[in-house]
Each structure stands twice: as C-alpha cells, then as structure tokens.
C-alpha cells in the first residue's frame, strides 16, 4: 500500500519532458517533488503563473508570490505572470498538457465529484470545474476508500459533480487504473504488497481485470 | 481629466447601498485593502460582491461580512471564512458559487464589450442548471453572461495619474480583468507616479479603463499560507 | 464654405476635456491639430495605442511606432500599448468616448457606407465596422457632395453599408447636422457664407430646418 | 522541451501546401519577415492566410502573393497592394474581408478555448450574411467563430528559449493574439535570450503558447508611411 508520497511518486512517472502541468491542492502538490531534474516541466498555477518553483527559504516569502493554494512559493527562471482570464484561457485551449487533482468520488464513466457535500461543506469549486471540463489528460490522485471505508470508485457519483466523462487515470494507495472511454475502471497496476482481491473489494464501480496485473514500480 | 483622488474614503464616497461591486485579489493577495477598509468605515450595505474569495474572518471581504454589509457573494471559493459559512447556513447571506475561469472570463467579457461567452466549465453539473448549452464541434459549452458591476475596485503595484496600472507578480490575478469591467473603476496603488514614468510597453491596464486612482497607505499584504523550506 | 482644415477645426469643438477619441484616416486625422492644449484628450489608435502624439521629427521615425493609417507617429507621456484584441475590446465596451471618421454616404437614419464600391474599390473595412457598431458618439467628417456633384446625405445609402443607425452628427464643408433618432438630418449650423438654400440643394435625404440657422463659429 | 530552432527555414520546414496560417503584423509593422522570406523560398502553395493586411507589392505577404502561394486571404484591409487587387479581380485569389476587431477577437477566442464570440461589428451589413444574429439587452450581435489555424507565425522583439515573448511598441498589434491561436506557433525574435532574462511581470506572451522560436536576422522593418514634422 502506498502512502501519500508514494502516490505522488507514481503519478510523477506520468509526466513527460516538455509538459505543462497543473497540480491541484493536496497530494497533487507533492508530485512536484518527484519530477526528474532532467526533465523540462513547467508548472502552471491557475492564479496566474507559469514556472512555479519550490517554497521560498524562510524569510524570503513574498506576499505577492503565491500559488492557487494561497501558499507562498518561488518563481523559476523563465516564469511568466498573467491575469486570471488568460490563465483559464490557456487551460480551456488545452495548452496545459496534464492536470492532476484530488477527488471525493470518481465514477466508472469518468465523472468526478470533489467540490461540495450538500449541507456539510460548501467551499466552492475554485478552478476545478474549468480544469476538468477542458483538460485532455486528467489524473486523479486520491484514497481508494473514504474514512467510512466506502469505495470512492463508484458506478455513479453520489455527490454533486465537478465534471463529466473527464477522468482518464486514477492513482490510489492501492492501484493505478484507467477509466475506459466505454466505461469501467481498468486495473493497470497494483501497489506493492496489494492483491487484486483487495482492490476488487475496495472498488464499487465496474472493475476490469485482464491478464496478470503487475506490481507498480516507483 | 482628473482621475487622482486623495484617499480611499474620497474614491468610494458615492458607492451606495444595494450596488454591485467587483473586488480584485486572489485569497488575500492583491486585495484593495484601503478601499475595503473605507467601505467598512462607510458602512454601506446590501452589497453584491463579485470576488474570487470572501477573505478570512478578520481580513479582506471578511471584514465586510462581519458588519453584514454583503447581501450576496459571487465567488469561486469561499473555504477560508467561518463567519461566511455561518451566514450562509443561517440564510443571512446569498451565495452564488461559479467556476473560477467563468468568473474571470465574465469579467473580461464585460471589459471587451462581449455580452456573453462560451465555456465548457460546469457542463453536466449544477452550475449548468437553467443555462443555455450549445454544442460546437462535438463539445458542449455553457453560455455565460458578462458581469454588470457598478464599481470595480482593484489594487495595483504602480499607477500613473492617467490611470495606467502595473501589477506585481501573482498579485495581478483578477485585478486586470475586473479593472476593465466596472462601470466605474477605482484603482488603489502602492506607488502613484506621473505620466511617462511607466513604460508604455509594460502597462498592464491602460488608463482608459480606470476612472479613479489613489495612492494607498499602510499595506498589510497579509500572507494566508506561509510555506517555507529551510536552508540546507 | 469650409476647407478640410475648417471641417477639422469645427469638429475639434465637439471634443470635451477627458475624452478618449478615435480619429479615422483623412480629415479626422487633422482634428488632432485643433484640440485645445488646455484639454486632456487621449487619442486611441486601433492598432494598439492610447496616447498618440504628433508625427516624429525628421530622423526620429521608428518603424515600430505607427498609427492605424500606418503613419510614423510619436507617443505622449502616459501612453499605453496593447494588442489588437484589447484595442477593439475597449472600443466594443464603449470606453472610447468619440469616434470621428470619413464616409462616402450617410443616410437619414444614420446608416453609413465607407468601405466598398462594388466592382471598383475593395480595400476592406479595417476597423470601421467595429467602430461604428460600438461607438456611442460618432461624428462623420466628409464633403457634402461627391465628385460627381451628387449628395452624400441620402434617404438611403446606395453603397454597401459599414453600419446601421449609428451616425450621430455630420460636419461637411457646408453645414453641421444632427442625425435624429427618428430619422432625418437636422440642420444645426451653416458654414460661413453658405445659405440654407445651398444646403437644401446639396442634401438628398430628409432635411429638417427649424427656426433661424446660425452660422458656425470656428 | 527544445523550442529553439536555428533559423526560419527549419522552423517552417513542415508547413505544407493547403495549410492555414496566421501571420502577425499590422501593415508592415511587426511582420515575421524571416518566416515570410522562408515561405517564399520554400514555395509552399494553396495557403489560406489570416493576416490583417496583405503587405505591399514587394514586401510582407505581397511577396507570397506574387508567387501565387496564397489561395485565400482573410484580412480586414488590403488596400496597399496592386498585385493583390489584380488577382482578386481576375478571380485567382479568394478573399474574405472581415472587421479588424472581429479578426483579432476570433484569434483570441482560439487562444482562450472559446468556440465563438459575439460582436456587433457588421450587423446590418454584408458581413452578417449567413451568420447567426443574437440580441442581448436590446442590441444585436453576430456570433463569430474562433479561427482554426495550423500555424501561427509571429514576430516579437525579445524572446527566451522557453518561448516567452515581449513585443515592442505598436509592433505588438496582432502578434500576441495570433501567438495564442495557432495549433503550432512559431515566433521569430530580434533578440533571443536565456530563461530568466525577461521579467516575468512583463512577458506579453507566456511560453506555453509558443512551440518554436528562433533568432531572426537582417530585419528591414520597412516603414509604409513615413510622416514627419520639421524641427522648428
């Protein structure tokens, strides 16, 4: 089973040289730490920055330099600043190659819910609806089951949707799965020490298992 | 053409109860701090506020919420404010949550004289309820309307007396698109300079969009999530 | 009767302190020379400039600094440069207070034709269609009659239209006229030495004459 | 991520007959001179060119027209080119004249992922023929579609190897909106610099929009209408 760092490390392997990547809050943010130094990858922060760097050294924080999670950050050489309309313009025009974000639920046809629990949590969707509606390549980073032990990979989402038919891949503490265009979670890899049976038990939606499922390499 | 005001109180003097305001900033970054303080002092009420966030309990638009000055918030993310949540759940506050890109683009539409724009954000979700859906090249889009705000209130780094504005780093965010979108646009700046002191090639908001400008004071520029790494 | 300079001078009187003004090619360009120094007026050039100044001194031309007529110009202190989309954005959003342009024909309901003579001239509309469709306040600067001696103030335009119901005021070598919202050219002023009769003869569209028509002051 | 090409020939090598190109510039100002020269040299044909103007007889897109490389021009103003007029009247050249703001905004729409925009330009004229008219708040607008170009070719003043661009003065014009709009965007620059040498606050076109960049040579920067005043 993977910890959060493991999930981030596994997702980092999906990133290719030359990619522009938008990382959501939470586990996706950690992915930045595991992108190989040899690769030219540019991180987009939807509040208006291309070229996000690591957190600043203590004492060097700048209130005017933050990411979409409102965290103080730094900018790398070759950064560019722009306004919010252009930021979502480049997202909508599919100039961002990969979007990695968290989810509360994903359905077997690629719907995602991650912004609202009626009567309980009303924080808003932020940029998530724009990202999932436009990105060509969306990877969800999340736990396979919720705190109540219920599967988050469902036949249908029960929570209000963020977007429909959009998630392409899911990486959890147990497995890597593709969401097939025709519907269904296709099991690609098992986390180290996790059995196919455990993944089956944790997946409420249609799980497609073909042939031997390899253990993932991180 | 006298656009220069001496302070926030003067610049916002004619903002009246019931008006619709756009307020720049992302989280607490790039906030028009002086104008917000002046609005709180003036006690103007029943406002509709278009702003990406609702501030925190004791800063930003949170200060206006605390005084019950806001009737309705139009935002994309409001998760940092307990008083906000209380007012929302008790029904004191009306809230319209919309996607962040939709918020930005509806501002830009107003500034560019476009009555509506198309975006796929929200298709298939409750955001799409009651809205026109239109298919282009096999993909569905929502038609979203340009905003109509009485005032846009923005914060820039530098500005000149003709209203030209320059923003600094990610404090730019929603400020330029809102600056274009207000019927009347008020800009507060950290440094007010004379015409000719800003390079025309690097003006972010041309002065034609800005009706009032003043040199702000005592910027707190609060940091919401101070994250650092230690020097090794 | 006015010469081109006279028309430009008369139009300059319509400009108010604080106005942002777009000047078309030809007579409108001359208007810039007669804006009182005491006024703060900013000239917009739709190729992407606010704050257009006079022509450069000889030897100081810069190929990168031109106006919409492709003439070398200068920029005044407080200028701003922007791209073509923003330029027409501010025009469409009615941030430009006054548009002055030439015309081949104007109809009594405010239609304007100035971009095409079928089979003869096909240069294109440039920014004229955008300007006339959006501007709140449009003044046409033109000759009252064409070279063949035919009136250019018509019941209906005969040439392909640039825009409909948009012209508010016309200044010619003979007269100043308002285009009334309900239709008709309302005669406001006569050029020095020009009689109402002469204006009547030169105007094919509905001319509205009420009371004494003063001679214009320039 | 290697975006840097050694010259125009390399950068345009895969532009093929029949493609649709956007070319930046206004008149002869801010023209991608090197790429135009390379396209003429390569002799690629049957092109659809989206560009505000069509150059003059012996410069700019006029050079491509002379070689009969252009099948169709989409422009707002073409009045400076006799060869153009001859080809148009003889039926050799197809021409679509559209309002300048519509041209710019259809580029921007492509760059911002918006399939269509609304503009009042052309309402009641032949430009409106066959297009959807829609009324918003009592005013009619045309729905105009985003452009779809195989390549956008732009000229900037400075650029870095990550594709970030800065333009100079009114040579900016259509270049930034076209840079955003190409499926593949090629930028030629007067000065190619290393990442970090352009101030992030003053980048006009973020590198994400630019796929290829090269340092141009021998810029002529011809002036179309040299107008001066004499020193008194």
> Could you say which overall geometry of chain B the principal axes of the C-alpha atoms support?
globular
Structural class of chain A: alpha/beta
Q: Approximately how much helix is present in the residues of chain A?
A: 10-25%
Number of helices, where a helix is a run of at least 4 consecutive DSSP H or I residues of chain A: 5
Mean pLDDT metric of chain B: 96
Tell me the number of helical segments of chain B per DSSP (H or I, 4 or more residues long): 6
Question: How many E strands of chain B?
Answer: 11
Measured on Cα atoms, how large is the radius of gyration of chain B? 18 Å
Approximately what portion of the residues of chain B adopt beta-strand conformation?
A: 25-35%
Largest interface: A-B, 54 and 59 residues
Radius of gyration of chain A (CA) equals 17 Å
Low-confidence stretches of chain A: none
Structural class of chain B: alpha/beta
Helix percent of chain B reads 10-25%
Protein model, in words:
Chain A has about 220 residues and is an alpha/beta fold. Chain A has helices at about 5-10, 25-30, 85-90, 130-135, 195-200, and strands at about 20-25, 40-45, 50, 75-80, 100, 105, 110-115, 115, 120, 140, 155, 170, 175-180, 185-190, 205-210. Chain A is about 15% helix and about 25% strand. Chain A has a ten-stranded mixed beta sheet with strand order 4-3-2-1-5-10-12-13-14-15, with helices on both faces. A three-stranded mixed beta sheet of chain A has the order 7-6-11, with no helix packed on it. In chain A, strands 8-9 form a two-stranded antiparallel ribbon. The longest helix of chain A has 9 residues, at about 5-10. Chain A starts with a helix and ends in a 10-residue tail after the last strand. Chain B has six helices and eleven strands. In chain B, strands 1, 2, 3, 4, 8, 9, 10 and 11 form an eight-stranded mixed beta sheet that branches. A three-stranded antiparallel beta sheet of chain B has the order 5-7-6, with helices on one face. In chain B, helix 3 (about 60-65) links the parallel strand 2 (about 45-50) and strand 3. Chains in contact: A-B, A-D, B-C, B-D, C-D. At the B-D interface, strand 5 and strand 7 of B face strand 5 and strand 7 of D.
